[in-house]
Design goal:
Structural class: mainly alpha
Order of helices and strands: HHHHH
Number of strands: 0
Shape: elongated
Largest sheet: none
């Protein structure tokens, strides 16, 4: 049972990382930032930003805050948007199975 819960947590974590990346990417594009320019504004490497936006890595709280400030929003808004995306995806998956 514990390994099943662990797999569920891993899957949720992966979905949340991807959703956070989508949220950052869509807001970055809405602000008309190229990825390289945005990474300089945030103060992280372009490769790190690519990994965040693709869901390969989780940013630190400090990096989330820097990203949010560069996008003129709150860190909480980015995280909440990510959670909404995951809930929507989870709901769509559940509906497709029924």
């Amino acid at each position: 049972m514990a390994s099943c819960k662990g797999k569920i947590v891993e899957a949720e974590s992966a979905r949340l990382k991807k959703a956070f990346g989508k949220a950052v990417s869509s807001r970055r594009l809405a602000h008309k930032f190229e990825q390289r320019e945005f990474s300089r504004v945030v103060g992280i490497s372009n490769s790190h930003l690519r990994k965040i936006e693709s869901g390969e890595t989780s940013p630190t709280l400090t990096t989330i805050d820097k990203i949010a400030r560069a996008l003129d929003t709150d860190a909480a808004d980015l995280v909440c948007e990510s959670c909404r995306l995951v809930r929507k995806e989870t709901s769509e998956i559940a509906q497709s199975r029924s």
